[in-house]
């Protein structure tokens, strides 16, 4: 019995080593297929096991063993580099970094972070495997694009953490942290669309509408409406891009709502989904009418994460939030709906997030929030349809009106029957 207990106690650590072995084999498998790599499958597997072993001995003997193991791995890689005589050879810094990460992941497994270690191992392998694709992305992104990423990092990791997470002002509707969190959310979604838009270039015409809708459906509508007057052959593309950009707004609002207030989705999704389905039916028809064209232009949209732009959105969001709470208090739901219609003319995100915030605070019922969001969307569709009629050609307006009215009609019908 004593021997069996001892063996079970010793073997209790075996799953940790099995996980480390799997991590080392995963990363080593990618390095093995790389001709320039100085470490392969066996090396990475052994390093991961060594990391777990060092962590175990460090816990049971002396803490210095874990650091000592890291130094041993470092000296081993330095010695391997010194044996290479060709100065022009690849220094293999990526492999060295991967080995150090592998050692750290092996050590973290022993401390009970198995799931995190496996996730990081997969991410490490992806970064190693997609070297060519990642280099291609960096070459396609301009200085302006990199500045966008840095500005988003400032918005998220510098400004957001220092803002107080408290309610201020009348009706306690103003929360600096929550307001800026919505700024980060919208900027993040817009940045993702902006970067993707720059990467795909003019090769995939319909995708321009999807990503244009993520960045700014209003800007996309305006740009393609203006260009439709320059060349009649451009109209079929403009119709598809404009309709898709406006449908993407509904998808974007669904994603934003899922993050900001997931409990309202059962009531909001039928409204957004009805508009999406009816509008998509018309858009598919015009997609079949679109002929393949070369050298298609990309809409020239603004950098979505500029500090000034983000601050302006935060200000608009805060103002809409306050007036929505105020008018809702003194005039009931009609006051909120007036704000929704007015603010929706230029920006549907502000009234959407404001309504969701008030709903989360218990100041609005779910039906009122969904109605306000729907009115904001309908107002926004009407505004963009006006842009098409005013700045676009008559033929473009004639072809766009059915798709945009179908989307609006779907939202209106769902609002009547489901809300």
Short description:
The chain is mainly alpha-helical. The protein contains 17 helices and no strands. The termini are far apart.
The coarse overall form would be elongated
Number of helices, counting only DSSP H or I runs of 4 residues or more:
17
Strand count, sense and barrel status of the largest sheet are: none
Beta percentage is under 5%
Run of helices and strands: HHHHHHHHHHHHHHHHH
Description:
The chain has 17 helices and no strands. The chain has helices at residues 2-11, 14-32, 41-60, 64-82, 93-110, 114-129, 131-140, 143-162, 176-200, 205-228, 235-260, 265-289, 307-331, 333-344, 348-360, 366-391, 394-418. The model is unreliable at 1-7 (pLDDT under 50). The chain has 419 residues and is mainly alpha-helical. The chain is elongated. The protein starts with a helix and ends with a helix. The longest helix is centred in the middle third of the chain and has 26 residues, at 235-260. The protein folds into 2 domains: 2-129, no CATH class; 142-418, no CATH class.
Task: Name some characteristics of this structure.
419 residues, mainly alpha, 2 domains, 17 helices, 79% helix, elongated, disordered N terminus
Q: What topology does this entry show?
A:
Elements: H1 2-11, H2 14-32, H3 41-60, H4 64-82, H5 93-110, H6 114-129, H7 131-140, H8 143-162, H9 176-200, H10 205-228, H11 235-260, H12 265-289, H13 307-331, H14 333-344, H15 348-360, H16 366-391, H17 394-418
């Amino acid at each position: 019995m004593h021997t069996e207990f001892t063996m079970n106690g010793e073997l209790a650590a075996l799953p940790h080593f099995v996980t480390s072995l799997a991590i080392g084999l995963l990363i080593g498998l990618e390095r093995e297929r790389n001709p320039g790599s100085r470490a392969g499958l066996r090396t990475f597997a052994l390093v991961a096991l060594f990391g777990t072993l060092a962590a175990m001995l460090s816990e049971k003997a002396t803490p210095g063993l874990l650091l000592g193991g890291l130094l041993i791995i470092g000296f081993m890689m330095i010695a391997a580099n010194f044996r290479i005589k060709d100065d022009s050879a690849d220094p293999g810094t990526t492999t060295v970094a991967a080995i150090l990460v592998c050692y750290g992941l092996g050590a973290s497994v022993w401390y009970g972070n198995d799931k995190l270690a496996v996730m990081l191992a997969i991410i490490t392998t992806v970064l190693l495997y997609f070297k060519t694709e990642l280099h291609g992305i960096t070459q396609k992104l301009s200085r302006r694009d990199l500045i966008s990423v840095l500005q988003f990092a400032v918005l998220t990791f510098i400004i957001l953490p220092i803002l107080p997470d408290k309610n201020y002002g009348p009706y306690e509707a103003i929360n600096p942290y929550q307001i800026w969190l919505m700024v980060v959310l919208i900027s993040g979604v817009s940045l993702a669309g902006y970067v993707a838009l720059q990467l795909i270039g003019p090769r995939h015409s319909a995708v321009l509408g999807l990503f244009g809708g993520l960045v700014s459906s209003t800007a996309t509508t305006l740009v393609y409406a203006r260009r439709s007057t320059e060349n009649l052959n451009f109209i079929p593309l403009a119709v598809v891009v404009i309709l898709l950009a406006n449908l993407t707004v509904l998808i974007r609002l669904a994603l934003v709502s899922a993050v900001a207030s997931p409990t309202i989705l059962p009531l909001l999704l039928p409204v957004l989904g009805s508009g999406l389905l009816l509008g998509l039916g018309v858009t598919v028809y015009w997609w079949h009418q679109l002929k393949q064209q070369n050298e298609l232009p990309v809409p020239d949209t603004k950098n979505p994460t500029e500090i000034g732009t983000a601050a302006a959105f935060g200000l608009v969001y805060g103002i809409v939030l306050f007036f929505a709470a105020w008018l809702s208090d003194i005039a009931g739901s009609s006051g909120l709906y007036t704000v929704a219609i007015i603010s929706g003319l230029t920006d549907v995100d502000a009234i959407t997030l404001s309504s969701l915030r008030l709903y989360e605070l218990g100041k609005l019922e779910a039906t009122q929030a969904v109605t306000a969001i729907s009115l904001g969307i309908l107002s926004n569709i009407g505004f963009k349809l006006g842009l098409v009629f005013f700045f676009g050609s008559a033929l473009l307006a004639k072809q766009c009106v059915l798709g945009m009215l179908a989307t609006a009609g779907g939202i209106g019908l769902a609002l009547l029957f489901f809300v």
